[in-house]
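Just wondering, does anyone understand what follows?

——
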Amino acid sequence: VSRQLKEEIRRGFARLEDPLAGLLAMLENSSDWKGKGHSLGYCITTELQLWIKAHPAVPQSGTKLKKLQARVLGMLSQSPANLLDPLISIYQLHTADRNYLLEHVSHLYLQGNYKEAAILSIKLKLQPDQDVEKMCTPLLLQDKANLVEDYVAEYPELQRKLLQTLDTWCDPSFNIRDITRPYQGLSRYKPEKFNRRVLSKLVFRLLERFSVDPALCPNVINQRHLRTLNYLFYKRFVEKTMTEENWGDHIQSTVGENRWLQGHLVQLLLRHCDARGAARWARHCQVPPEMLPRAIAEELQKLHIQDRVEEVTKADNYESSKKKDYYQLPIPRENIHFLQTWEETLQCWEKVLQPGQVVGVDMEWKPSFGMVGKPRVALLQLALKDEVFLLDLPRLLEQAEAEGEKEKLPHFIQMLYSDAAITKLGYGMSGDLSSLVATCSALKDMEKQMQGVVDLLAVDKQVDGLSPEHNREEKGVRQLEKGLSLLVQHVLGKPLDKREQLSNWEKRPLREEQILYAASDAFCLLEIYERLCKDPESFALGSDLTEILVGKQSKKPRAKKQLNKQEAPSPSGQECQGPRTEPSCPPAPISPQQFSVVCDNMLQGLGRYLRCLGVDVRLLDNEDDHRKAAEIARQEGRVILTSGLPYQTLRSQVGEGRCFSVNCSEKAREQALQVLKHFNVQVSLSDIFSRCQ
């Protein structure tokens, strides 16, 4: 609104004997304010609100104000949302007679203006004097769950009443038509949005938002547990993607002592197992004998210890026969360390927090199966080149808190994630980090300081085909694989064995299968990273993997959910020098004899070409680790020439300007020209072949 218009509006108010009555008269004789947006009526109303604050003597009271309040109430149901608060403030509707306000809202409700009645009730804080079920039912039928949430937001007692009502509707024996029948002619009625499934989701959302005890909603909780039971039976007996021990853990914790769920468990056992198997699992889950059908009860009496031994032996044979089909950890079992004390953990951090280190990071938590609350990390895996550390986070957090040092763990995790000299590898890191924050609230701002993080999820859709030594005919063999398992199959040749993925990771001690699975999940990231860096072309990837995996530099502001907060790499062929500074003068010209480099093993063609031009070149062998380049560079004063992701690791290990990223997609000649130009190397005719024997 222009300053001139504002001044004119205020002068107009000053000339009026009764500005409040004047505004009402104007609104009653105009309709432009009824639309959305900033109408002239809206501008005048908001200016009056500001003008009244500057002239406290203007507000009225008594009979005159009551008459104005009665008139404005009639207008509120037609008002756009942005006019409600100014009008309520100007005409002091919070001071009006409460019964009169309730009567007005009730009149709106009876006219079928349910949304308007609810919004006005929220604005005037009338909810404690209303029937929450009556007010919210038509809103739910019109798919206005967000308005229902706002209606109860500030009133814990109403939240509980609403949740109990919704839970009653979710009882399988309840006829939902009893609720919908009185509203058959309702405008914008969406019956497809009013069913137990949708209501159940709403209950869980409200339980989480308002931190209400789930025990208040037994019907919804039982139904969710039953869905979990069905899902677990599907995973074990149809997909066959869960081990027996893992499955048994979840069945037992899901059913517990709930008689209703025990009854459903027995029915599912009968459908999927023979009588003997059903009896064994009924005993394992402590189902009362009186609940068992006769056939299972008879089998239960025959069971003895030998049966269990036979079953375990059979399972072991099955497990070992399947192992050869999956990715296997290439490090010995004694190099996997399960850490439960701070003494062990501090030794681990000493190894992990080394400049130039590459660390595979993964996390595990107990699956929630759709229950309330964010999952809390139960295990943090850190994989190095030849060993894996599994950190028991609940135990370590408990110990630190008992010692009055609860900041100890978040401090170390922040050191790891904020150190640009350490490359952290993950897969789908946003989920891991949100669970880490739910576990340890002190880490809530960590993503802002993150540097040197590489999320391999970025490469997942770009990897083409299987590992080069695999025949292309095998490409369609394992369509069931997905996510990290599929990437491992494509790059390393065999998928991950994911049967322990949905384990109860909070249960201690961990089973041996869980330990091996957790270690594999973190260690395979190192192998994928190394393989893609050495041979990107075999997987149809652009040779500059830095841009694919770490993310391109962008001038746009970072999206709120973006987790890779590390400094973005420069485009290929430019040296990355941290924050941009003013352009400096080009380096002084030097001859090829004065220029010495070490070439990473994917740049052997460039190295040979530079040697032909008289440059002092050392080449890494194919089997050499990229980090060897940094050792040679430091010892012999050479510049590192590298490409893709190793650049992120190597540049932190040498002085500024001593590491250069080359575009692998170009031919050796173009690469050489790029290097010579950047370092201002002047080649003369006598330099060419000067180093050749």
